[in-house]
Structure prediction request, 401 residues.
Amino acid sequence: MESAIMPSEIAKPSYTNNAALGIAQILLWGGSYFILSVLSKPIMQETCWSYQMVYSALSLALLISGLVLPRIGRIIDAYDRNYILQYAGVVMACGLILMGLSRHFVLYLISWTIIGIAMGMGLYDALFASLGKKYGPGTGKVIVQVTLIASLAPSISWYLQSLMLDTYSWRTVCFIYAAILLLTIFPLYNFVFRQPGTTHTKRTVSKETTTSLGELKGQLYYLLLVHFTIGAVVTTGIIIHLIDILSDKSMSMTAVIGTVTFLGPSQAGVRVLELLISRKSSLLSAVVSGIAIMAGILLLSTAPIVATAGVIILGMGNGMRSILRGTLPLEIFGQEKYALIISKLARMPLIAQALTPIITGWLIQQFSVSVFLYIFCALAFINIILCCIIIKQTKKNGIRI
Prediction:
């Protein structure tokens, strides 16, 4: 039997490292998930592609990201040196350059396929897997700090891209942003994850470790998978249709935009609270997050006067959910197989996210915003029940969280 290589000495988090990771996340989210919010209109005007055609590329990227993540997780888990994150900016830059060159829709879709691979390589799930391997039990606090900084991604990226769009065409904006990624992401990630004296050597895995990897796919694994998938569908569906939901209440567009602006600060605010208050169980936080999301949806389904409160509570629940994607699997499964588990747990939620706009758009078109909200409120309630079942199962398995 081959002996397993002992894990490297657990590193200590630093504010400098966390700031570097937060900046990298802002730039990567801005070059992928949020970029169409600014560029979609000029793209449609120049190419005459429909709204559905332009945004279908983002759904494709999310789908590709979900498909490649398990493989990325295996690579992060198997090698001593973390090089996946470092090249995410290079791959995303290639996708943006190809996007800027796209004159035909097929080439545009290919560019977003490349961007989707980069999203799998460099966004939250790959980052959380890498952090778990580097920091072990201290990962939770690092995740909170990094996601707090990264919550500024829409505000900063939209402002920066809008500023560029005032002077340049959308194609040139793609090229400039690609250059920014090429110049920043590799050195930022290399600064945090550099490990002097290590090589790209694959770690030997013992027979016992291989067996336990298979055993991890038990009831707890699948409960978490369903929980994360439903959570991704609910929050994605509500947030992408938030303007439609508020407009359906006969609110003026000025009031709608003013209400929507509370979403980002509330997500950031709850992460600040996570840093200030004493650390609680991730499972308890999951229940609170689920209740907050359901309460937010319920408020949004009632009178316009409580819409702002609904957006704030929803944002707080979603802000907690983003952190739990990283901390909950770590507390349940431990550090040893964390990179592999978190990447596998991310696949179905990302695929579900990719399909959510299509399904929710059909629901609203065929029925109404109210029916859509009632269905999603029921899904949020199911997710709370799932949290309670997960708590019961962890106690049954003797896992203390």
Summary: The two ends are 33 Å apart (CA to CA). The mean pLDDT is 83. The chain is about 80% helix and 0% strand. The longest helix spans residues 338-366.
